[in-house]
Design brief:
572 residues; alpha/beta; 6-stranded antiparallel β-sheet
Length: 572
């Protein structure tokens, strides 16, 4: 459940902060006051696309923060915990839109990508827009509405997974069964490339060893001179070697140890140094004696390294990557050589997947037909109460096993309606007027929402084009939804607003060359005045106020006790 929202510098709102309760909340106000501002801000914090044009004029950034109570929603808690976004049962979302940088999103104060906000938002809030009824004319939307009502998530997931596996297997089979001419040409090329690599006799880590050997051969003279000079300085020079000077120092100090044993440690170290100097000299002598400037060997190394680099360029890799290239080419050759066996195996696998797919799409189709019967009854009943007496609604589910495979099955689904008694149902797009379509859409939204698990439902002026007793029935349906969900309704109809558990007034304030939006909860007296405004227009008379009081009294009297939710707090 949505508990609060804080909006700062968003469109014409400077600072708006509201706390919410459960049940049904109506948002009302003058045309152009910004009633849909709250809905737009909520959509942004739930991952909708944003741009800098939404930032209030003269400001550098806009910020929207919301909080949800998810104590009774284990699935949401698990979703947060699986992504290490949980924070002691809280669910705080924030979105920042800047002029100079990309927008940022946060869940429980941890930065997240927009996709994470969208995924979480789809589980928290369901927003029904005022033009949503137009989407009902699309076959895909009709199928989605029926599947949502029937809770087909698991069946659809099975069908989609089988379709993906079938398509992947079909593509692999097509690759294996490429034309014999192409296959033979590829085989010839692979065999030539492998022979070329095998002729080198390349060993693992050989490139590194070759380069080290090349560096040693190319710089043998320099290495020999340097080692001999070092040997001269350390040992071989009879006049100035390090060994000679160390030996002299040791002799002098050994004669003094008897006078002061404090020199004992130093003489011990000098003895060790002389031993090390001898070992270093032996090592340098052995190293320099082993150096040999072999110009023939150097030429061999340069030739082999050049061949390896040329071949690496041919295969678009580094020389050390040639062994991996050989393994890949060999694997492809083996695969092509085994093409007949692979083809038979893939054909068998494809046949099995096709059988499983057809079986699952039939199960999905049967379930859709069963759900359609319940759906028809509920939507037809909803039409009767929404000013369409004698109206009939039906869903036609047609299964075609010859239809091209797809992730949604093999059904065509069509909504049909008869708005007048005695007329046979016809496709929705051909017989429903705009007002009728809006009411049918509302009935579907109400029924679908009752069967759903999303805690917060928002209806943005879905009651456009209706009035009178029909408007009251719309309000009652929305209020009934409030028994199991938190419901927000942006409305211009007093009959709907009167039935809400609480009412928020949206107003536009101007002054000092600025315009800003204010949203505040109304107490009973203020609600009377707001309903009177909605009833009577610009001039509010005592008669319209009395009518508003009567509407509120009737709404309160008809309200079941369990739907009387707490009102939102005033926050200024």
């Amino acid at each position: 459940m949505l508990t609060h929202i804080h909006i700062r510098n968003f469109t014409i709102a400077d600072t708006v902060e509201v706390e919410f309760g459960g049940g049904m909340t109506a948002l009302t106000g003058e045309t152009g006051a910004g009633k849909s501002l709250l809905i737009g801000a909520l959509g942004l914090v739930l991952g909708d696309r944003a741009d800098s044009g939404l930032i209030r004029h003269g400001c550098d950034r806009a910020e929207i923060a919301v909080g949800f109570d998810i104590e009774r929603h284990v699935g949401l808690q698990n979703w947060l915990a699986s992504r290490e976004l949980d924070a002691d049962g809280e669910c705080q979302l924030r979105r920042i839109i800047s002029r100079e940088r990309r927008s940022r999103g946060y869940i429980n104060n941890q930065p997240v990508p927009m996709q994470a906000l969208r995924e979480l938002g789809e589980q928290l809030v369901d927003i029904h827009g005022q033009h949503e009824h137009q989407s009902l004319l699309r076959s895909s939307a009709q199928r989605a509405a029926l599947d949502a009502f029937a809770e087909h998530d698991a069946l659809l997931a099975d069908v989609a997974a089988l379709f993906t596996d079938w398509k992947d297997t079909r593509d692999r089979l097509a690759a294996v069964t490429r034309s014999e001419e192409d296959r033979d040409a590829r085989l010839d090329l692979l065999r030539y490339q492998l022979q070329e690599l095998d002729a080198l006799g390349l060993q693992a880590d050989e490139i590194s060893a070759l380069e080290k050997d090349h560096d040693r051969q190319a710089n043998a003279g320099q290495l020999m001179d340097a080692s001999r000079q070092a040997l001269e300085r350390l040992y071989d020079n009879d006049m100035h070697s390090a060994y000679l000077h160390t030996s002299q120092a040791l002799s002098e100090l050994e004669g003094l140890v008897r006078l002061d044993d404090g020199l004992a440690e130093t003489t011990r170290l000098l003895n060790e140094i002389m031993v090390l100097l001898q070992e270093c000299a032996d090592g340098l002598r052995h190293y320099s004696d082993g150096l040999d400037v072999d110009h023939g060997r150097l030429q061999e190394l340069e030739t082999r390294i050049g061949v390896l680099h040329d071949l690496a360029r041919k295969h678009r890799c580094k020389p050390e990557g040639l062994p991996a290239v050989r393994e890949r080419l060999q694997a492809e050759l083996d695969g092509l050589d085994d093409a007949d066996q692979q083809r038979a195996a893939l054909q068998q696998q494809l046949a099995g997947l096709e059988t499983a797919y057809l079986e699952n799409t039939r199960r999905l189709s049967d379930s859709r037909r069963q759900a359609a019967r319940r759906f028809n009854k509920l939507i037809t009943e909803g039409m009767q109460t929404l000013g369409m007496p004698g109206g009939i609604f039906e869903v036609v589910v047609t299964h075609d096993p010859q239809r091209a495979f797809g992730a949604d099955g093999q059904d065509s689904i069509e909504f049909r309606v008869s708005a007048n008694p005695g007329q046979p149902p016809a496709p929705l797009s051909k017989v429903a007027s705009g007002g009728e379509l809006s009411r049918i859409s509302l009935a579907i939204q109400v029924i679908s929402s009752k069967s759903g698990h999303i805690p917060t439902l928002i209806f943005d002026e879905v009651d456009t084009g209706i009035g009178g007793s029909v408007a009251e029935m719309v309000g009652q349906k929305l209020r009934a939804l409030g028994a199991d969900h938190q419901v927000f309704c942006v409305t211009h109809l007093p009959q709907v607003a009167a039935l809400a558990d609480c009412q928020l007034q949206v107003s536009k304030l101007t002054g000092d060359n600025t315009t800003r939006t204010r949203i505040r909860p109304l107490n009973p007296e203020e609600r009377t005045d707001e309903l009177a405004r909605m009833l009577g227009g610009v001039k509010i008379t005592e008669q319209t106020r009395e009518h508003a009081r009567e509407m509120m009294a009737q709404a309160q009297a008809s309200k079941p006790a369990k739907t009387r939710k707490r009102r939102p707090k005033r926050t200024g």
